[in-house]
Amino acid sequence: MIGSFLGSFVIFGPIVTLFLGACYLSVAPLFLSDENSIRTDSFFVAIAFGVLLAGLLYVLAKIAQLPGELMVPIAFITLSVVNVVRCRGALMPSFALSSYPASIVFFLLFLLFCGSVLVGSLMMGIGEYPHVFFNGDTPLRLTHAYEIAQMSDYPPEALTTKDIYRPYHYGGPASVAVLAVITGLALHKAMFLVVLPVLLIGSFSAVCWLSRVFFKKAGSQYAAILLVIPFVKFGDEIYSRFVLDTIKLGAGRNSVRLLNEFGWLNDFDPEHFSRGIWDISATAGVFLLVVSCIFMARARKMQILIAAPVIALLAFFSKIEITPMVAALMGVGLLYRWKEIGFKALIVYVVIAGSASAFL
Predict the structure, then answer these.
(1) What's the pLDDT band for 235 if we cut at 50, 70, 90?
(2) Distance in angstroms (rounded) separating the CA atoms of residues 21 and 101
């Protein structure tokens, strides 16, 4: 953990590193294995989960007319201290891969999984302002982050349209807003250089963890990971550009058009390309969907009892379309453990936990 802390210190700076450390420590017990340990993949999943949770708590504090920029650090520091005292060395992750070839394979799989999204995110985050936007929803998500950062009531008034108030896919932007407000980082840098990369790494780590839950052999795990590659719509993009356009334009004209794409720095249409670049809300949705699969498949009783309503609420807050799927996965996980929980207690729990969505 010390190595990762120092690496984050170099990349993000001390304040952002402390924020990410608090995000990890505040939720780490939920991701402990049956051996009471944290591995590399679960470490990054916990950080990403904590970052999303920080955004949710920030908005809930604002709804309660409390200063979110104070309540989130207080809550996370308190949880971190309690968890460290209670779990002690169990929260120290063990960064270990079986071999250097395995490390190379995972790195290549990561690039295949979300390399284009990561590169696009870094391109949008560098500089005093974004010089290019990939995906038409990305600037909208950035305006959402601005709205949440300066809001006094929830939902906030739209930055671009007067008297419009909409609670719309605010999970990712809320995490950006709370990070920027607490650390002083510029909003576009918080989104594109910190939160989105953290969610991408967390999503890939969640897929790796899920493959490890079901398969013991490395080859089977690699094959399982390949099932969710590519993370973005490259299959649709390749079919559209190379097959359909060749049928419409002919091989010669389409080849010339594709060769002209190499002049993208001078004449580049990012929206046309960016069907392969997901925005922060879509990334958060995929992350929560895979995390809900992990909790359904391997979580202990107390872990799923605590995490289920939180994950469902985060899904509703981050990407409402996935809420039914997440709720179904969490429901299956709870029903599978109904003998441990008790049927009556389970019914009461589901009713109380389900009512939490009224906050949003």
Answers:
(1) low
(2) 29
Per 3-state DSSP, the chain is made up of helix, strand and coil in percentages (nearest 5) of 75, 0, 20
Averaged pLDDT for residues 321-325: 86
The amino acid that residue 163 corresponds to is D
**Which residues contact residue 317 at a Cβ distance below 8 angstroms, ignoring those fewer than 6 apart?**
55, 56, 59, 170, 171, 174, 360
- Can you read off the two tokens belonging to residue 50? 């904590």
In this prediction, residue 21 has a pLDDT band, given cuts at 50, 70 and 90, of very high
Q: Tokens 């708590």 — which residue?
A: 57
* pLDDT (0 to 100) of residue 266: 46
267, pLDDT greater than 80: no
Instruction: Determine the Cα–Cα distance for residues 228 and 225; give it in Å rounded to an integer.
Output: 6
Taking a C-beta distance cutoff of 8 angstroms, is the pair 232, 286 a contact? no
Sign (positive or negative) of CA dihedral 109, 113, 115, 121: negative
Residue 321 CA to residue 305 CA, distance in Å, equals 23
The angle formed by the CA atoms of residues 290, 176 and 233, to the nearest 5 degrees, is: 45
Looking at every residue in the chain, the average pLDDT score rounds to 81
What φ, ψ does residue 131 adopt, rounded to 5°?
-85, -15
